[in-house]
Design a protein that fits this description.
Belongs to the HAD-like hydrolase superfamily. CbbY/CbbZ/Gph/YieH family. By secondary structure, the protein is of the alpha/beta class. The protein contains 10 helices and 6 strands. Helix content is about 45%, strand content about 10%. Helix 1 crosses helix 4.
C-alpha cells in the first residue's frame, strides 16, 4: 500500500537523507542476528557447563532487538551481558577471538560476520536501491550511518557506494570515539559532514536504537522500516512514519 503524497519526502522540507545499512539498504540484519546468536550461545553454554548452571540461549528476536541491534559490536556485547548479570573484563580492541573479554567476544562476532558474508554474499533490497536512485536523481545529499565496520566493502559489493557522499561507520565511531546508537552522535556527525541541518534531514532506520538516535537528534523526519511487522514498537520509540519497504515511498 502506497503512502499518501503528504507523507512523501520532498525538497521543500528536506535536503538530506541518512540511511542505516543493515536491514535498511542490505539484507544483512538477519545475518548479524544469526552471528550474534552463535557467539552468545557458544559463550553462554560454555559458561553454564563450567558453573553447573542451566543454559539459557540467546533469543534471536527479543535479545537481538533490545540489546545489540544497531549498536557498535563492543557496546552490543556489553549491553547483552549486563542484561544477563554477567561481568567480563573489557580487554582491548586487539584481543584474540578466543579471549573471554568484551572485546574478544566482539572480535569473534566480527569474524563470524565476515565468514558468513564470504560464504553467502550480500544482497540489497530492491525497494531500497530504487529509492536511493530516486533520491540521487532529485539532488538529495545522502549518507550511510552504521555501526558496521564492513560498510565500505558491503556498499561496493552491492554497487551503491558511489551514491553516498558521507559514510559514518564503525571505523569512524572507533577513530573519533563517538557514542553509538541510541545516542544521536553518529547521525549528527553525518549531517554536519553533509552540511545539512537536522531539521531538514531524514533518518531511515530499522533498529529500535537507531530510531531512538534519530529522535534524540531532533531530525526532521525519522522513518522506521518494519520488515518483520514491528511497526508499533518503532513508533513508540520515536518513528514519525513506518513502512514495510522503501518502495512504499516511490510513486
Amino acid at each position: 500500500m502506497r503512502q499518501s503524497k503528504s507523507k512523501l519526502i520532498n525538497r521543500d522540507q528536506y535536503d538530506s537523507v541518512l540511511f542505516d545499512m543493515d536491514g535498511v539498504i542490505t539484507d544483512t540484519a538477519s545475518l548479524h542476528a544469526a552471528c550474534w546468536k552463535q557467539l552468545f550461545d557458544e559463550f553462554l553454554e560454555r559458561r553454564a557447563k563450567l558453573q553447573g548452571e542451566e543454559f539459557h540461549p540467546f533469543d534471536i528476536v527479543t535479545d537481538y532487538r533490545l540489546h545489540v541491534d544497531g549498536k557498535p559490536r563492543f557496546e552490543g556485547v556489553r549491553d547483552f551481558l549486563k542484561s544477563r548479570g554477567i561481568e567480563l573484563p573489557e580487554g582491548n580492541a586487539e584481543d584474540p577471538v578466543d579471549v573471554e573479554t568484551v572485546c574478544g567476544l566482539g572480535n569473534r562476532k566480527n569474524e563470524l560476520v565476515n565468514d558468513a558474508i564470504a560464504r553467502k554474499g550480500v544482497q540489497a533490497y530492491n525497494g531500497s536501491v530504487q529509492f536511493i536512485h530516486l533520491l540521487h536523481r532529485n539532488g538529495y545529499k545522502l549518507a550511510v550511518v552504521t555501526s558496521s565496520q564492513n560498510c565500505a566493502s558491503i556498499l561496493k559489493a552491492v554497487k551503491l557506494d558511489k551514491f553516498f557522499e558521507v559514510r559514518v561507520d564503525g571505523n569512524t565511531i572507533h577513530a573519533q570515539r563517538l557514542k553509538g546508537k541510541p545516542a544521536p552522535d553518529t547521525f549528527l556527525l553525518a549531517a554536519r559532514l553533509l552540511g545539512a541541518e537536522p531539521i531538514r534531514t531524514v533518518v531511515i532506520e530499522d533498529a529500535i536504537s537507531g530510531i531512538q538516535a534519530g529522535s534524540a537528534g531532533k531530525f526532521g523526519l525519522v522513518i522506521g522500516i518494519a520488515r518483520s511487522g514491528d511497526a508499533d514498537v518503532l513508533k513508540r520509540h520515536g518513528a514519525h512514519l513506518v513502512v514495510r519497504d522503501l518502495d512504499e515511498l516511490i510513486e
